[in-house]
Amino acid sequence: MFRQTLDPAGSLTLSALLALIPLVAVLVLLGGLRWKAHWAGIAALVISIVIAVAGFGMPIGQTLDAGLFGMANSVLLVLWITFNAIWVYNLTVHSGHFEVLRRAFSSVSDDSRVQAIVIAFSFGALLEALAGGGSPVAICSVMLIALGVNPLKAAALTLVADTAPVAFGGLGNPITALGPISGLPVDQFGAMAGRQVCFLAAIVPFVLLYIADGRKGVRECWPAALVAGVSFGLTQFLVSSYLSYQLCDILAAVVSAGALLLLVRVWQPVTATVSTGRGGGGGNGGGVATATGGDDVRDSRADVIKAFTPYAIIVVVFSLAQIAPIKKALNAIVWKFSWPGLSIQNAAGKKVDTSYTLNFFGATGTLLLVSGLLSLIVLKVGVGTAVKIYGRTVRQFGWAILAILAVFALSYVMNLSGQIGTLGSWLAGTGAFFAFLSPVVGWFGVTITGTDVGSNTLLGGSQFAAAHQLGASPILFGAANSSGGVMAKMISPQNLAIGTAAVGLVGKEGELFRRVFGWSVGLLLVLCVLVYLQSTPVLGWMVP
Fold this sequence. Notes:
- The chain has 21 helices and six strands.
- By secondary structure, the protein is mostly helical.
- It has three domains: about 15-55 and about 400-544, no CATH class; about 70-95 and about 300-345 and about 355-395, no CATH class; about 105-290, no CATH class.
- The longest helix is centred in the middle third of the chain and has 57 residues, at about 185-240.
């Protein structure tokens, strides 16, 4: 039995700095040295293993086993979801219906900047609400490329857009994960998170315009950003507070898309723009030129319906899966066992849960697979062809698969060795200022795990312990962990790997990281200020 220690260096500050090294290594290797994601992930994993063994006293056998445990979890939680999401997209490309879908989105507006908001923000939020796991990044990136956006810029747009919806992604899974850890009503966490990320939702569309076309984009298209952001954020606030946090992003995505459709009937940018695929992004206005004309092809209503059908099927399948009897049936066959070789206690002497749960039939990836199989009928794609397309989909990810496996192994080694607990304890020791730092904890968690669910599971307990120690609201800190984590989705190695794989630029993760890192930190600081104010009488009335 290995027992974690929170202060192996004899000073909690020094121990926290030691635990922070693997995370800093990831950020430096990706952003500073522009390493490929899989090499950066592997290097950070090796560093974390050395620190776990030499610094935190974890036996080498259990340390390596913890890494294998993380890899095993990544297969169902990320790879299975992403493969099937991209497979559905590739089916529409093969059948020719993706071009119909592209033209349908183009018909919303001739302006590529408005299209970026509709696709990356509104449609991406719907995909995040239903599936998560990197699927909106992968699918929306290729949609933008099909509209003429530069591949790296397309990936950056979708990574930044996939922020505000993440706290409620996968039908609210990140919020649901906080319930068992805290023992508190999970709806209160949902309401609190909605009162945080709604402000981010109002900002993100403006960021997208800046990435797409710099200040010129913001100046010319701000009405679209305002309508999309405010309608999305307001819906998040109201639905999470008074209806259901599980439905929050679905309704917000539909409302924001509908509001944009109404807006463009009475307003269009003075100068419509399309991406030329030159260079770009980062707010310099590169890659944008005056539109010279649209697509002359006119699709029939039946073809448009067929193009949207695979995504409508996803909505229906996931909605049906939430009906109590069906959900119970899907979860009836679950294989759960203690991971062999791992026997760990936390610093308080409580056994750490190291059970592996294989819930294949109710898994998000499986529901996406079912949606794809049903789509074969509508798209008229044969089974043999579909299998070949699936094989090409898996090969498309290449080294990105290794990056995802390495990052999950890293997160489990850091967690099970006690490195994460040490960081949480050190941050909790900052006193009242912890309210400002609480979102940062979630940000670190998602950077490491790549998922908001993983961050809440990993660090939620630290947030609640800090709240108890400080006499603060556990609802506020728990929600802040989830809300803070969403800003790290755009810089986590696994999501960078998914983004570059989707746009055919595997190996460019470092460059993509540099494009989005500033936005990640900037939005995080906004949330830190908001959460701090919510911990004071100024905005304390917002806490349930």
